[in-house]
Amino acid sequence: MVSTPIESILNEHRSFAPPEDFVANAVINSQAEYERLYAQAQANPETFWAELAAKELHWFQAWDQVLDWQPPHAKWFVNGKINISYNCLDRHLTTWRKNKAALIWEGEPGDSRTYTYAQLHREVCQFANVLKQLGVTKGDVVGIYMPMIPEAAIAMLACARIGAPHSVVFGGFSAEALRDRLNDAQAKLVITADGGWRKDAIVPLKEQVDKALGSDLVPSVANVLVVQRTKQTIPMLPGRDHWWHDLQKGASADCPAEPMDSEDMLFVLYTSGSTGKPKGVVHTTGGYNLYTHMTTKWVFDLNDMDVYWCTADVGWITGHSYIVYGPLSNGATTLMYEGAPRASNPGCFWDVIEKYGVTIFYTAPTAIRAFIKMGEHLPQARDLSSLRLLGTVGEPINPEAWIWYHRIIGQERCPIVDTWWQTETGGHMITSLPGAIPAKPGSATKPFPGILADVVDLEGNPVADNDGGYLVVRYPWPGMMRTVYGDDDRFRRTYWEHIAPKDGKYVYFAGDGARRDEDGYFWVMGRVDDVISVSGHRLGTMEIESALVSHPSVAEAAVVGKPDPVKGEEIVAFVTLENNVNVDEDLIKTLKQHVVSEIGALARPGEIRFSDALPKTRSGKIMRRLLRSLAAGEEISGDTSTLEDRSVLDKLREGA
Ligand code: WT7
């Protein structure tokens, strides 16, 4: 990492005030109210969080210290006793919510199920007893490798109920990736399914589990529980493999939630990062419960009429925090969808919104760019009038994609919350509150109350407004990760030592470049590992990519630097085009000129390459590291196990 901060070149000045109708019913309904909350939290974070913890959650026993901060280790609600499964289920059963829909599920083939809070509670209790019966006890790690079916949420909540930390591994990961993660966490048991539906085909999950475990490749795993979902014939190993439905049938529905210490581990979730071995991000119970509860409540402005849909997979932190724990802790109705837009039904998302009257829709910029490419006739053929709020997460959203989302999906009626956060942060960190903070397309706007975010140089000094720098957080928050599983040293090095602690004050470094504008809005410019250095100017990837995407011919773009003897680096752009656009010399000239007129000559790409797809992780992030190697004509090295579609790389190589 170089100490020169990042330069900002984006010119984006549009602003969208919260619509009046929305403000009228919003929980936090003015900028002044947001500022009041922010100031209150800043003045005394401990009191701020403690008051919310007491008011919003059930504790079996109160804490005796709000925060114990021994940098970089924080403990929240010390000696408090709590159970997140209790907060997500049991406490709603003594209210009218007992028979409210907790979980609505739609399968890809069109089957569906709905669980009320009472029904979900019963399933979770029974399954918790199944786990106990198989010898799982408090502190044992349980691996979950599942399709997007209700049993995934039931399994997570059952683990939480008995104090067995879960380690969910995304169902799209390979057997090798699964094996490494199970071994790293020393999982005792794995929960899976025969298969799941994705794009009209069966993903053979049990087959992958068999491969991962081999005859003794993961010695810690004694049992495998299998949900019957797709019903193809699969081998079951006697003694090790058990059908979920067989054991669930006979299990008692009486299973009181275990009072957990606030700092007991709730789960570990692996995040790949751009290099090296995946890190097991550890989250604990009390702080995470409070933080996901509050962010869900305020950022999504939840009320009891909402049907809330987050399109993420439970294999990602977004699924943990904003499909399962945050919504259920609030007593909301959360929708889970197994499928993905596919040739046989590219408009399936809009069908789901129409069918269930979804009011809040939360997805990723990569999905939005795919919707744009599929065409606006698809959403326009459905009734989307139930929607009142939209959200995005995962990467900076290109302003043009934001405008499309606002116009075509939100029909100019719905605010958009752009939520910046990370696996490591547990929940939203920089995000608008939809009834209080005007949106600027491409900006995640302002820090959530209690989050002391800043943009600094390498020495930790704040940079001037509109200058680029490193995005940091100056004070602990309840949802923060506690350590890297089994590697505390890596935790310290990765997040707390890049920016040198000053006067004993540690800051959390997120790995992103950002700038803050004159109105206090944060603009995330991408990962600092991806910065391109042209003639001494350090440029973030996001702004150049957004300029390209603002051209009508371009569907998606990724830019990387290629070593250049004169300029240091030259910009190479990888572009996918809208359907029916042909590549010729003129187009290349036009696109280069377009970047120049949007942001300046400095950002002119030296080279533009076209392809029908870009290499992405399974969570939709462009893998610029691989593109960098391609642009430089080098062999691809390092971990490619998180790549979504390997053939994309081969095609890009052939095209070179
Ligand atoms: C990285 C974290 C958080 C859940 C999904 C991804 C990027 C995420 C935004 C946003 C700009 C964003 C950052 C961050 N990112 N959301 N709204 N605006 N950038 O979780 O895999 O842990 O990735 O995603 O670079 O550091 P993750």
UniProtKB/TrEMBL annotation:
Stored SUPFAM superfamilies: Acetyl-CoA synthetase-like
Claim: Acetylation is one of the keywords in the record: yes
Cytoplasm found in the keyword field: no
UniProt cross-references to Pfam families, sorted A to Z: ACAS_N, AMP-binding, AMP-binding_C
Cofactor needs: Mg(2+)
PROSITE patterns listed in its UniProt record: AMP_BINDING
Residue ranges of every copy of the AMP-binding enzyme C-terminal domain listed in the record: 543-621
Domain AMP-dependent synthetase/ligase stretches: 96-483
GO biological process: acetyl-CoA biosynthetic process from acetate
The EC number(s) this enzyme carries: 6.2.1.1
Binding site for Mg(2+): V549, H551, V554
Binding site for ATP: G394, E395, P396, D418, T419, W420, W421, Q422, T423, D512, R527, R538
Molecular function terms from GO: acetate-CoA ligase activity; AMP binding; ATP binding; metal ion binding
Domain named Acetyl-coenzyme A synthetase N-terminal: residues: 34-88
Posttranslational mods: Acetylated. Deacetylation by the SIR2-homolog deacetylase activates the enzyme.
Positions bearing N6-acetyllysine: K621
Assigned keywords, A-Z: Acetylation, ATP-binding, Ligase, Magnesium, Metal-binding, Nucleotide-binding
Protein purpose: Catalyzes the conversion of acetate into acetyl-CoA (AcCoA), an essential intermediate at the junction of anabolic and catabolic pathways. AcsA undergoes a two-step reaction. In the first half reaction, AcsA combines acetate with ATP to form acetyl-adenylate (AcAMP) intermediate. In the second half reaction, it can then transfer the acetyl group from AcAMP to the sulfhydryl group of CoA, forming the product AcCoA.
Annotated family: Belongs to the ATP-dependent AMP-binding enzyme family.
NCBIfam families attached to this UniProt entry: Ac_CoA_lig_AcsA (TIGR02188), PRK00174.1 (NF001208)
Descriptive protein name: Acetyl-coenzyme A synthetase
Species annotation: Pseudocalidococcus azoricus BACA0444
Lineage: Bacteria, Bacillati, Cyanobacteriota, Cyanophyceae, Acaryochloridales
Gene name of this polypeptide: acs
